[in-house]
Amino acid sequence: xxxxxxxxxxxxxxxxxxxxxxxxxxxxxxxxxxxxxxxxxxxxxxxxxxxxxxxxxxxxxxxxxxxxxxxxxxxxxxxxxxxxxxxxxxxxxxxxxxxxxxxxxxxxxxxxxxxxxxxxxxxxxxxxxxxxxxxxxxxxxxxxxxxxxxxxxxxxxxxxxx
Length: 162
Ligand code: HEC
Ligand code: HEC
Prior knowledge:
Layout: H1 2-19, H2 82-87, E1 106-107, E2 111-115
Antiparallel strand pairs: 1-2
The chain binds heme C (2 copies).
One heme C (HEC) binds at residues 49-50, 54, 64, 66-68, 70, 73, 82-83, 85-87, 97-98, 126-127, 130, 153.
């Protein structure tokens, strides 16, 4: 069944490509969809944890950006989550990692009114929401304007997410 669906979807894609005249290029990729893209590394990571200042949040309520390198901490697996090794703290201490906030202990789907004892499953894969910017130019231009003051890391007033 799944196989049949897959082939139907694949056939539809090919047909729509022909109908709309896109040839074998599609989406944001600059090359044929039949090639395996090997992108250049996008840029240098930031420094080790604690070496560089926190980054301003892109918009109110956004997950804070990771201000340090993370490549050596990945992948996050069921048995290993290096992010939690450092961030699973109860209280903020000067110069130490920011503790995972209370919201991350709440299982919004099954028990939205109480904080559990452990990180909620939906929050376990930290890099699902927290991204670590590298030093690079934008790959694709956009006109998103950050609604917060430039020096704000915690301001929760301001605009809506893009
Ligand atoms: C070796 C310890 C260590 C590890 C491992 C680590 N961090 Fe950090 N992290 C820090 C330190 C130190 C800071 C900067 C101080 C702070 O949090 O206020 C920081 C800052 C952050 C911040 C910014 C918080 C804010 O309020 O702006 C985020 C988000 C973050 N880390 C996410 C992650 C994620 C996601 C991972 C796993 C991929 C991770 N960290 C792994 C130590 C660590
Ligand atoms: C589903 C998205 C999502 C996931 C997954 C997630 N976070 Fe967050 N995180 C957020 C959002 C949104 C905020 C800001 C609002 C808040 O505090 O709840 C935040 C805030 C934070 C902060 C800043 C807290 C503060 O007091 O300023 C830290 C540190 C953090 N997260 C660490 C983590 C770590 C470590 C993981 C993985 C175990 C993780 N987060 C997983 C969305 C997420």
